[in-house]
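Batch manifest line 372
LIGAND: S-adenosyl-L-homocysteine
JOB: complex structure
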Amino acid sequence: MNQVEKVNLLDFDRQGLREFFAQLGEKPYRAEQVMKWIYHRLEDNFENMTDVGKALRAKLEATCYVGPPNTLFDKGAADGTHKWLLGMDGGNAVEAVYIPEPTRGTLCVSSQVGCGLNCQFCSTATQGFNRNLATSEIIGQMWVAAKHLGNVTHQNRRITNVVMMGMGEPLLNFDNVVKAMSLMRDDLGFGLASKRVTLSTAGLVPMIDKLSESIDVSLAVSLHAANDELRTELVPLNKRFPIAELMAACQRWIVRKPRTSITFEYTLMKGVNDQPEHARQLIKFMRKLPTCKVNLIPFNPFPGTRFERSEMEVIRAFQTQLLNANILTMLRRTRGDDIDAACGQLKGQVLDRTRRQAEFRKRLDEGTAHAA
Ligand code: SAH
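JOB STATUS: finished
ARTIFACT:
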């Protein structure tokens, strides 16, 4: 018997889906019809796609499926934040988080199982890295959340914004992330405007340029320090792409997308990067990117970290210093920290391929993680 493996339709963007339908000997517009069922009505059963002919439904049944990830666990926080632990092939799991606010609802999506960048203040780093997520596993997070929340595309949106700020470095999983974001943007997909889909990167300079040529989305850059010595300590990737190069890439982004802004994320850690001199360095950095803004994030602690959250007065003073220099500076409210769903607290289940998880656990057991 010629057993052919079935294809997961969530792996295709619109173009890919059209090509797949062409291979099946179907008209491309049929692909678009099915796409609406999948993303507008969140339907994963071909049987229920009533305006698709019987013969085509049978053909689809035989060759493909709509396969979102399995929810292993989900939990709501007191403030309305919701977290899903989603099982991926191979025993791994990643987390997605929904953050409702009065005027919008933001879904935070993961791009990799674990992360290889080893930023010192992020709990995902302590889990090591396993692999990139497939397009279906990225857009599938949104599909699961949308279904759970009763999202209706173009009508009653619960998810108005998506941020690629979950586990992983999205620019290291470029093709799958871009495909998934194109489904977030597509009118036949989730139909979100470019301002409402944001990719956050630790600063992979060449990929920032590539992104600007590939798709229209918003950019956030995790800065955390505006001097190279400190940034290299916090974000080791800075060694490869130091601040001057990162800034040049951001300037090129703005030239290519003149009406957009870049958000610089800055996690405030007590006594590490929260002093007036650090704010001065940040102001100097931002002067060269006048249309951009700063998002301050109070550090979210996790077991074994050596960092602490800055005091609220220090955070306010830091913000005031930037505001006084006419830099648009927001303070991100800490959300969902009672269910470990806040920035930098996402862990999932990473079958680590590096030695990082084991090393971190060993240091925790020895009680030396704090001093590391
Ligand atoms: N790798 C990408 C996507 C992750 S986004 C990036 O670095 O941008 C997650 C955001 O939360 C980043 O800005 C990250 O630096 C920040 N973050 C990580 N750990 C944190 C913590 N413990 N507390 C607060 N923010 C943290």
